[in-house]
Structure to design on (112 residues):
């Protein structure tokens, strides 16, 4: 049975194999696996950085991951609201809209 593909493998497959390898082996295999911060804290830091840099495409992956890693919806809302004052209102509004869609999508899936 073949191993399940990672998100990077699904997205980029054979198109950018070295970037996939670095993503899987270095970023998630070493950096995210380091014991210096918990997965939860890494997610919160990553989401904050992505919001501040207006990287909505990456938030689509990292917001659900943050929830999975134990960051609560309330903590994400609070963090994004706080970031609005330092990184800009449009950044925060975009991120909060994405988070709302993710949370509401998960809630409706749970209800079914």
């Amino acid at each position: 049975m073949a191993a399940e593909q990672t998100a990077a493998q699904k997205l980029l497959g054979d198109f950018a194999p070295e970037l996939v390898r670095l993503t899987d082996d270095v970023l998630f295999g070493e950096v995210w696996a380091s014991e210096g911060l918990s997965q939860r804290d890494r997610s919160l830091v990553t989401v904050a950085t992505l919001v501040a840099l207006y990287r909505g495409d990456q938030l689509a992956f990292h917001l659900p991951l943050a929830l999975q890693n134990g960051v609560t919806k309330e903590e994400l809302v609070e963090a994004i609201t706080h970031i609005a004052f330092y990184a800009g209102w449009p950044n925060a509004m975009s991120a909060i809209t994405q988070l709302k869609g993710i949370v509401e999508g998960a809630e409706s899936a749970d209800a079914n």
Observations:
- The radius of gyration is 15 Å.
